[in-house]
Amino acid sequence: MNWQRLFGLVLAAVSSGWSATRVESVDPAKGLVLANRTVRLEFASGGMGLAALVDLRSGVNHVRPVAGPRLLWEVAFGKGTQIQRITNNYKPCNHAHVETLANGTRRAVMEWNRLRWWLEDGVVTVRVVVELPADSGVAEWRIFVDNSSDYWGLWSVTYPLVDGFPEAGKYDLARPVFGSGGQLLRNWSGKVEGRSPSGGWPMQFLSLSQGRNGVYFASMDGEARAKDFVVESGQRLGMVHYPENMGVAGSDYPDYYAVAFGVYEGGWLEAARRYRSWALRQKWAQAGKLSGRSEVPDLVKDVGLWVRDSWVWNRAEGTPHGQNLPFLEAQKKMGVPMALHWYDWHHMKFDNEYPHFLPAKPGFRERVAELTGQGLLVMPYINGSSADFNIADFARFAPHAITDEAGGYRQHFYSDAAGRLLSMCPSQEFWQSTISTLVDRLIGEEGVNGVYVDQVSAMGHELCFNAQHGHPLGGGRYWADGNRDLLRKVRHMSQRKGRQVVITSEGADEVFFDLLDANLTWAEPSDLEIPLMEVVYSGYTLFFGSPCDYAGRSNRFFNWAQGQALIDGRQNGWMTFGLFEPAHVAKAEYFRQCGRYRIAAKKFLTYGQLLGPVEPLKTVPTFSEEGFGWQQKHRGTVAGAAGRLWRAEDGHLGVFLANYLEEAVAFSYRIDPAEFGLEGGAYVLTELTPEGSTAVARVKGPVERQEALGPRQIKVIEIAAVRP
Length: 724
Description:
10-stranded antiparallel β-sheet
């Protein structure tokens, strides 16, 4: 590859039509400073590693001193099982300059030209670009790696790579996580890492903050190529990019996207809003707001509550109708549209014989017909990613499986009772057709009105090295593209012949939001949870799931899990029919209340935008219990009541409050509607309930109130401008 031509083309693209008005030569031996009125970036002499990241608003330098040369990038080369690495300190930077563009943007360019590598002269060139807008503390970071070796191929490119940041115990880390809205790790120490795209790292950003001094770190990758986020407190922060054709002699990394990295004012909420402004311009959000997405069935938009269960519900046996009675009775008690996530409906054991789910158990078709006839959403489980090595016809599937760099299958251990499940490559038309045909049969033959395609959103990009698949080896965009093609075919089957069938998947991965009708958030409740994903994507997709151990947890713990999910915007549920047995009547009643408010406040919770928490002006009671968290349980403390602020499409604001306790709670708050675009100066306040709406006040200027929340009460106050 001609790297000069490549760099020229890409640099022209990132310039977005702006030309440099001034070019300043820089002596790399003296380092480089890139600054505006918000931030100062200092690059060390010689190797040009980032030595300082100074927030000029507060004076905080986020990068601590380290022993030895500073880091900026790392390039790994591969050949067979060998991996060799170089960093920006392998050789000194041999060219640098700073450009000022007509729009005020400052651009630093640093080059390591034609390096000798592994007995080959002039075979590696690394060029990095840092663009700092005139009015922002967040820069765009790009890297170009040209590799002319006739032996080595690129294996990974880590950039930006910053050592001495973040300091242990000094930052709150906000990150996306699997099966949840997000997590806030306060005064964090440790290591977090995650593959994007994946359900484990479902959005391409994180933030670190000390009070209002924030650091933003995000991939601006609209094509969802394989990459890893890595942050280790007291050590380093980096993003690992996986090139196409990893380990293939002469493979390059031609800079597919920028990384946003820099300072901003605020915490996790401001970072989420910043990410939202980028994310809603990407292809997975181009279907538009949920209110305008006619391809998403009203059946799922209108769901009040979800249930998840196996073949037998609450020991009900006998005829199909007798088996269905727990669901029919629960729906009558709850009084809202309900949906069922149905496991173990198929002939074989769970996690065995995939993808051969059919035939169904005897009576399945009859049960489905009765339930759907009552207007209920019936959504059976299938797996959209895994095949079982043990099936008799595995030879048909073998050529389409993901293989590692040594040719082995990527098998997964789920339980001792599972088959030998391995990942199929989503780029393969054979696999796409296998899953879409299965969906077609479930709809056409069994009569279901929903299908859950497990794992597609949950899995991460597993690097595939099967040279027969027709995609680049290792890294690239083929994994996301292949799964998008698979879901397009599934959606086609769900809509052909006038069908309106709901399609969902496990967890949530933003790159599939336009091709799914809802996303399962099934992680167990955690005191670390924040509505990070809901702030970013509310109004554009649906999230469902608020699982909680109703038999083993206290009423207040259960109420907290359900109330938090409601005010964050998730459809409640994903628990078994045992919840509706007499022993759990109090929990079921709070569950019912959540479902009824979900329906009553649909203009906010389904179609609106979550603006963030409503912070109480006065302290509210807290409670502490064991059992918070998912895989690792711990003792946690949470507020006994909480609030969220939503904005509907008509501009009205909604204050959502939930009391989780058996005692009354006074919740005081102050909101300036003008801050959120609701102008007028005078406002009418209406309490919204499942029974109807009641005007409660007219106010001028900011709204400051104290709401009396009765025991276990949910309250919604709608704020509208007074019409002149």
